[in-house]
Amino acid sequence: MTMEEFKNQVQAAAEELLSGDVKDAIITGIRDVVLPALKEVADPFTAKLKEDAAAESGWVKFRDGVFIPGVISIAFWVSEKLIDKMAEKETAAIPADTQDAAATTPEQVTA
Hints:
mainly alpha
């Protein structure tokens, strides 16, 4: 086996692994498990920052009350939008004939 053949086999295996169902599962896992878990950690953190901001003044009050919670909220919003777009692309990337294949019976295919 040459190095080129080995490289092609590894590349084919990686493409097979990272296509279709696995990629969908990763995207769904990130959207349904990882982001909500991160939000559960971030929500008390931002609430505590806002609470502490009431006792501060100047830049620290703005930073703790508006800036950091805003950055965290925007980061979650952008992450959700990117993951939704990736999920849409995966759905659109599936050829129409494979999407309809599960809905058709062998009799419908031959007819």
